[in-house]
């Protein structure tokens, strides 16, 4: 029997979903009195639910993933053909799409050399942490095991990646956490620390990382893990001078620089990777989400040749190599999809489109700021943008989460799906987040911002 995705009873699907599916990030008590949303179709920038409602998706699959848009038959066809030819073999052996995609990916990442495949951003970061820890034992006698992470950054859902996540409510109820993960201060200029040097905030914020290193002992710190632009923590682009100083500090203390590109990678900011805006050379880069635009599960942990070479030795051949495996890192669908995904970005000049439409989006959001006192700060780069909602611009007191949620709900009711910080902080779940597909047009941007404009007006009238 062949399953036809277009042959289903909408009511049966919704009821089956309600009765048997455990949704991500969802309080299911609500589904006792309302229907869960079931998405049944996507095309370009738009999706349709089981009830026939159409939405413009301004967050690329709700979690910033569908970079090249829905309905790409060329990707689906490539995946289908690859699966028929060879669907899976453990990646202790190679396969054709993984080899070809690795070569193409490394061409976009000067200074990087090796690609390790797994199937989610959390897993990619886990691999990076294991690399750092094993190098600590192989090269430093078991020292330099500590991994620094930044307040407000997010690196995944597993216990180890939550141990490296600077978001209190994301971590709540999941401890105790893995030892030797140490937090460094955030670099959000809009909410600069009281004691900060406001005239040179980027360098000052990076210097706070050095202070933590010195407190912990440089001989104990193996890596610094940062997002190029803080994503779910509020769309925070580091200020001028920050990344240069971070690079300098890492080199000074022999600390590996791990950049988490799970959100920003593969064109989201207008370059292939977010870090490429800032002139830094990482030792490890992790990526997922937009690597295959959600057409297949794939993530990558990419390293320099120097990091890779640390695992090639004769002294301890039994235990000295990277003794790790990801079962579905051997699935060929991911790299097959990723190859076509990259080709689409190149052929359709989507990096250029991201830069152009991103500038237009920021301009329109700044117009909202001029019009609505609820908008405190507009941030972002490329087609990755957000704004903080505040009760008062002078005090910068954040609105409560319910207010941001009301803006999101109003946009949804008008047919536009937007994002927001969601149960991440005690008081700063006040950022509206936008990450439309890289194919977005000016008309799409207008529809998104017009919906937010109406929502802000409506929500403000009820405060």
TrEMBL record:
Co-factor requirement: pyridoxal 5'-phosphate
Gene Ontology molecular function: any one: pyridoxal phosphate binding
Keyword annotations of the record: Aminotransferase, Pyridoxal phosphate, Transferase
Domain of life: Bacteria
One Pfam family from the record: Aminotran_3
Protein family membership: Belongs to the class-III pyridoxal-phosphate-dependent aminotransferase family.
Protein's name according to its UniProt entry: Aminotransferase class III-fold pyridoxal phosphate-dependent enzyme
């Amino acid at each position: 029997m062949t399953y036809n995705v277009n042959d289903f009873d909408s009511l049966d699907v919704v009821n089956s979903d309600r009765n048997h599916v455990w949704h991500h990030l969802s309080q299911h008590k609500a589904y006792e009195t309302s229907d869960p949303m079931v998405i049944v179709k996507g095309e370009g920038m738009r999706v349709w639910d089981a009830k026939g409602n159409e939405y413009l998706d301004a967050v690329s699959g709700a979690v910033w993933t569908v970079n090249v848009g829905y309905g790409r038959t060329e990707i689906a066809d490539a995946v289908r053909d690859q699966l028929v030819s060879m669907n899976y073999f453990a990646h202790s052996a190679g396969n054709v799409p993984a080899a070809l995609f690795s070569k193409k990916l490394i061409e976009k990442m000067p200074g990087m050399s090796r690609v390790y495949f797994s199937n989610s951003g959390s897993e990619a970061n886990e691999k990076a942490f294991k690399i750092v820890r094993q190098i600590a034992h192989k090269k430093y006698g078991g020292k330099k095991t500590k991994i620094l992470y930044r307040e407000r950054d997010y690196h995944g859902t597993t216990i180890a990646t939550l141990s490296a996540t600077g978001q209190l409510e994301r971590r709540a109820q999941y401890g105790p956490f893995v030892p030797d993960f140490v937090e460094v201060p955030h670099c959000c200029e809009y909410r600069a620390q009281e004691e900060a040097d406001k005239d040179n905030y980027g360098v000052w914020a990076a210097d706070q990382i050095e202070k933590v290193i010195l407190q912990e002992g440089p001989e104990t710190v193996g890596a610094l893990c940062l997002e190029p632009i803080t994503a779910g923590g509020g769309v925070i682009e580091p200020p001028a001078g920050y990344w240069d100083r971070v690079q300098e500090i890492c080199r000074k203390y022999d600390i590996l620089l791990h950049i988490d590109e799970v959100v920003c990678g593969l064109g989201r900011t207008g370059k292939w990777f977010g870090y490429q805006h800032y002139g830094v050379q990482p030792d490890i880069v992790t990526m997922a989400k937009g690597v295959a635009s959600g057409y297949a599960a794939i993530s990558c942990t990419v390293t320099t040749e120097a990091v890779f070479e640390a695992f090639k030795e004769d002294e301890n051949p039994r235990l000295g190599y990277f003794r790790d495996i990801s079962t579905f890192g051997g699935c060929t669908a991911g790299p097959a999809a990723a190859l076509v995904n990259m080709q689409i970005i190149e052929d359709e000049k989507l990096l250029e489109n991201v830069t152009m439409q991103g500038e237009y989006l920021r301009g329109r959001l700044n117009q909202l700021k001029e019009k609505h006192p609820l908008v405190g700060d507009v941030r972002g780069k490329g087609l990755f943008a957000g704004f903080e909602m505040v009760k008062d611009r002078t005090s910068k007191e954040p609105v409560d989460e319910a207010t941001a949620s009301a803006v999101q709900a109003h946009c949804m009711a008008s047919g536009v799906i937007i994002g927001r910080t969601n149960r991440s902080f005690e008081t700063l779940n006040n950022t509206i987040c936008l990450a439309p597909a890289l194919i977005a047009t000016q008309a799409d941007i207008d529809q998104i911002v017009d919906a937010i404009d109406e929502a802000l007006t409506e929500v403000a009238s009820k405060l």
